[in-house]
Amino acid sequence: MMDDRLPTHLWVMAHIRAADSQGVSMMVLRKGDPSRGTVILKLNRLDRTFQVLVQVREESRLRWSRGTGADPVDEATADAYIARQTRYDPDVWVIEVEDRHGRHWFEGEVV
């Protein structure tokens, strides 16, 4: 079966540009595999609280899992979770999104 998804680096950069055009800052904290790396989003609500979302695919549909749970956490907790994930999967990308409303700016529902 042919995989028609964009390479991760192009997909991430397109989202960064789109968010930037709306005044939302996104930064690549860690580059993973440029073609097929999984993405972790570190949502910075700009109030010292964070949420971590992890990219998952269910039946070819993109979704986001709440890595740190439903409630916001402090930055140390978010960073510790991300560090564990990057040790497990060295090809993962980590993107920080600064948005007061906690929006992730990528397609796919949060589950």
List keywords for this structure.
111 residues; alpha/beta; 6-stranded mixed beta sheet; 25% helix; globular
Multimer state: single chain
Give the rounded overall mean pLDDT. 93
Helical fraction: 25-40%
| Amino-to-carboxy terminus distance | 27 Å
Structural class: alpha/beta
Secondary-structure element order, N to C: HEEEEHEE
- What amount of the residues lies in strands? 25-35%
Gross morphology is globular
Which ranges are low-confidence, i.e. pLDDT below 50, for 5 or more consecutive residues? none
Radius of gyration: 13 Å
Q: Count the strands? A: 6
Sheet with most strands:
6 strands, mixed
Number of helices: 2
Q: Provide the spatial order of strands within the biggest beta sheet.
A: 1-5-2-3-4-6
Topology of helices and strands:
Elements: H1 8-21, E1 25-30, E2 39-44, E3 50-58, E4 61-66, H2 75-88, E5 93-98, E6 109-110
Parallel strand pairs: 2-5, 4-6
Antiparallel strand pairs: 1-5, 2-3, 3-4
Pfam families: DUF1491 (PF07372)
Protein name: DUF1491 domain-containing protein
Can you give a write-up of this model?
The model has no long low-confidence stretch (mean pLDDT 93). Strands 1-5-2-3-4-6 form a 6-stranded mixed beta sheet. It is globular and about 40 Å long. A hairpin with a 2-residue loop joins strand 3 (50-58) and strand 4. 25% of the residues lie in helices and 32% in strands. The chain is of the alpha/beta class and 111 residues long. InterPro entries: DUF1491.
